[in-house]
Design a protein that fits this description.
The structure is a single chain. By secondary structure, the protein is α+β, with helices and mostly antiparallel strands. The chain has one domain. The chain is built from nine helices and 16 strands. Strands 7-4-3-2-16-13-12-11-10 form a nine-stranded antiparallel beta sheet. A hairpin with a 5-residue loop joins strand 5 and strand 6. Helix 8 runs antiparallel to helix 9. The chain starts with a helix and ends in a 6-residue tail after the last strand.
């Protein structure tokens, strides 16, 4: 990876900055949290909201990395001739390069609306799933769409929607195996991801709309007993400087560390603060607070620049990894053009040799399902692609 080239592409060649601007930058550098059910919302298919909507990195550390959650009705089994030794950090990248990218992105942040009546999030959630036969294993990404309008008003009405959309072949190699397997036009999944999936049409009956009032939708992270979250109105009052944001996050971090058993996989105080800053990138905050969160991530030594990438929609960005205790917990993609968050992704870090197969449970018996190709390090397991992330004064339909 040519980091100097990546940085040069991100940073234009302006006139030399004034001495005051240089000193200000150094001062800023020196000064320098849904799978969980939101309290108060009714249960049901709302639980399909992807875990990375509000990134639960502490939970990932405690529970390990899985592509699909095992449930009573569904399981994804993995077997290996040579078991892995655990996750490893992403190859390449340096904290210096990450700081350069993140500080530049913070300067670029310029929301079209500083605030609004609704915080709008639209995203596409792509999850890797086995789709082939034993003779011709291949993988699919199963795509779901999610939208939320989170009201700032204390008793305002929040609207959320979800839709099971389409499948897509994960890679060119998967497309070749799919053709060799007779290029089926659909996949019937009886449990876990119920429905009839195809490459062209949304899953029939896969849409859902719900609402709630006065929810705490601004997630900062996990406490030792529960999730730490604010209302949208409280989130709007978060500081707009890195130092101020750190001061707000630190007491929560201290509470988490005090409540974490010694020897567990909990976060350190510095790690919790970095995770809180990362959570804020999708929270209903002012643009200046988002910029402050990027500066906190720039200061955190566990942030690393991975590569220049394109997300599944073809948008160019910089992939950065957030590491805790030398493990890459998540990668997030920052737009090269605007500094905005484009997507997040989870990447396999286990050694090769794993074989994936889905199973489903019917009539008190497990039945073999679909087969996927072996995992390999660097293989993307899940994408969350943000198509809208910002403020709006337009009320949702419905």
């Amino acid at each position: 990876m040519d980091e100097l080239k990546m940085i040069a592409e991100l940073l234009p060649a302006p006139e030399p900055p004034a001495a005051e601007a240089v000193q200000s930058a150094y001062d800023r550098l020196a000064a320098v949290t849904m799978a969980a059910t939101v309290p108060g919302r009714s249960p049901g298919r709302r639980a399909d909201w992807p875990r990375t909507r509000k990134v639960r990195t502490a939970g990932w550390l405690a529970g390990g990395f899985a592509v699909l959650a095992a449930a009573a009705a569904f399981a994804v089994l993995a077997a290996s001739a040579s078991p892995g030794t655990g996750p490893a950090g992403p190859s390449g990248g340096s904290n210096l390069a990450a700081r350069t990218v993140l500080l530049a992105a913070a300067r670029q942040i310029n929301g079209s609306h500083a605030t609004g009546a609704f915080w709008v999030v639209r995203l596409l959630d792509d999850q890797l799933y086995p789709g082939g036969t034993k003779a011709h294993p291949y993988d699919l990404f199963l795509r779901r769409g999610f939208s939320t309008w989170e009201s700032v008003a204390p008793h305002g009405r929040d609207i959320y929607t979800s839709q099971y959309l389409t499948a897509r072949l994960a890679t060119a190699a998967d497309a070749a195996a799919w053709r060799a397997a007779g290029h089926p036009s659909q996949w019937v999944i009886p449990a876990g991801w119920p429905g009839r999936w195809s490459l062209t049409k949304p899953v029939p009956g896969g849409a859902y709309t719900g609402s709630g009032k006065g929810q705490k939708v601004c997630v900062l992270g996990d406490g030792h007993l529960n999730q730490i979250a604010l209302t949208a109105a409280q989130c709007l009052r978060l500081p707009q400087t890195a130092a101020g944001l750190r001061a707000v996050l630190r007491p929560y971090a201290e509470q988490y560390v005090r409540g974490t058993p010694v020897g567990s996989t909990g976060l350190t105080e510095a790690e919790w603060i970095a995770n809180g800053a990362y959570q804020i990138l999708t929270d209903p905050v002012r643009p200046q607070t988002e910029a402050a969160a990027l500066r906190l991530l720039a200061e955190y030594p566990g942030t690393a620049l991975v590569a220049t990438v394109r997300d599944p929609l073809g948008r160019a960005g910089y992939a950065l990894a957030l590491r805790f205790r030398d493990h890459a917990v998540v990668e997030f993609i920052i737009s090269r053009a605007t500094g905005q968050l484009l997507a997040t992704r989870r990447v396999f870090t286990s050694p090769t040799g794993w074989v994936r197969q889905s199973w489903y449970y019917l009539g008190s018996t497990y039945h073999p399902g679909l087969y996927g190709r072996p995992w390999y390090p660097g293989m993307v397991a899940e994408w969350n692609i943000f198509t809208e992330l910002g403020w709006s004064n337009t009320a949702p339909r419905g």
